[in-house]
TrEMBL record:
Gene: wecB
Enzyme class: isomerase
Keyword Isomerase: yes
InterPro entries, A to Z: UDP_GlcNAc_Epimerase_2_dom, WecB-like
Domain UDP-N-acetylglucosamine 2-epimerase: 25-366
Protein name (database record): UDP-N-acetylglucosamine 2-epimerase (non-hydrolyzing)
């Protein structure tokens, strides 16, 4: 009898990171894959599903402009429950730390369906940062039956919180599976300005920013810092794929208007984004996923946050936490651009987050829950 595994996800980063797992579930002879999107992000989510060839079986369509976190959670509970009842999955898979994940895992738990948490055990140690993700991770750990920790550090975090070690498997992060699958595929650049940058072989500084706790004054400072960097280094091109959220755009973009060497784009399709990242000389970001991807491409990464739940690449020397202060951002970018030794010290390709086999380990651990075969050895063991 095949087991029905329901994967529930709602945002772009979740889609990128669950896509390799969904592919693996589909390929397993004794597992049946059912997919549910909440639609917490809309266009950015659809874009990723399209790239990985996934057509969701259910779409809860919860997105609304300006919706509160509580409004979003309430909608997910309300619309997911009938799907759980109708589909009767044997397990529910969630990924990461969004409000979709927290709501879906509690909803599954209330229906007594075992929860599998992909990317379990990340902790910044500050419940307010990232907000609300740190709380979402901890809430999800409470209802999870199988914790798929990406690294030995995340396993140790869970064990420190008294999670039963037998319920944890270390898989590597599935984002590296997605990255290795995608990078190097010669996807066309749909924005002609990006193609022109490549044709002219201009060095690229890639920037992404969206974190909720940086909204407002901090993000305005980021915009001013970017403008100062662009003016000081006119031979470089600063590429900023702008997040869809209007709050982010209104804070960052005004300072950048009219600068020849700043290219602000719509969110890039994953293949295009990884193509630009692979060419970039420095990555400046507050993103979780980008912090994991860029080190494996050997890019120095400056992270605009005060703390991180991803210490592995900081320890390896390719990621530096710099906060969101305007002067500090300019100073750290200048240091890398002016000092070849400082640049070389950070530009090491390291893969602390995965080896491209995370989905395989995840699917093996899910199958083992049902007595279908053995787990694979832990990543990094
Ligand atoms: N990404 C993308 N297009 C973009 C910007 C980012 O495909 O224009 C990808 C990126 O490669 C990474 C993920 O989106 O895999 C990160 O998403 P985001 O920064 O929104 O979320 P976080 O990782 O911080 O949760």
């Amino acid at each position: 009898m095949s087991r029905r595994i329901m994967t529930i996800y709602g945002t772009r980063p979740e889609a990128i990171k669950v896509a390799p797992v969904i592919r693996g579930l589909e390929a397993h002879p004794d597992l049946e894959s059912v997919t549910v999107v909440t639609g917490q992000h809309r266009e950015m989510l659809d874009q990723v599903n399209e790239i990985f060839g996934i057509t969701p079986d259910h779409d809860l369509d919860v997105f609304a402009h300006g919706q509160t976190l509580n409004g979003l959670m309430a909608k997910v509970f309300d619309r997911l429950d009938p799907v759980l009842v109708a589909e009767r999955p044997d397990a529910v898979v969630v990924q990461g730390d969004t409000s979709t994940v927290a709501a879906a895992s509690i909803a599954a738990f209330y229906r007594q369906i075992p929860v599998v948490h992909v990317e379990a055990g990340l902790r910044s140690g500050d419940i307010h940062s990232p907000f609300p993700e740190e709380a979402n991770r901890k809430l999800t750990s409470q209802t999870t039956a199988l914790h798929l920790a990406p690294t030995p550090t995340s396993r140790a975090n869970l064990e420190r919180e008294a999670v039963d070690p037998a319920g944890i498997a270390v898989t590597g992060n599935t984002v590296i599976d997605a990255l290795l699958h995608t990078v190097g595929q010669d996807v066309p650049l749909t924005d002609p300005r990006l193609q022109a940058v490549e044709d002219a072989d201009r060095p690229v500084l890639l920037v992404t920013t969206h974190r909720r706790e940086n909204w407002g004054g901090a993000m305005e400072g980021v915009g001013r810092a970017l403008a100062r960097v662009a003016k000081t280094y006119p031979e470089h091109v600063l590429v900023l794929p702008a997040h869809r959220n209007p709050i982010v755009r209104e804070a960052v973009l005004p300072a950048l208007e009219g600068l020849e060497n700043v290219v602000v784009t719509e969110p890039l399709a994953y293949g295009e984004f990884t193509r630009v990242m692979a060419r970039a000389s420095i990555v400046l970001t507050d993103s979780g996923g980008v912090q994991e991807e860029a080190p494996s491409l050997g890019k120095p990464v400056l992270v605009m946050r005060e703390n991180t739940e991803r210490p592995e690449a900081v320890d390896a020397g390719t990621v530096r936490l710099i906060g969101t202060g305007e002067d500090r951002i300019v100073e750290e970018m200048s240091r890398l651009l002016d000092d070849p030794a400082a640049y070389a010290a950070m530009a090491n390709a390291v893969n602390p987050y995965g080896d491209g086999r995370a989905a395989e380990r995840s699917v093996a651990a899910i199958a083992e829950m049902f007595g279908l075969g053995e787990r694979l050895p832990d990543f990094g063991s």
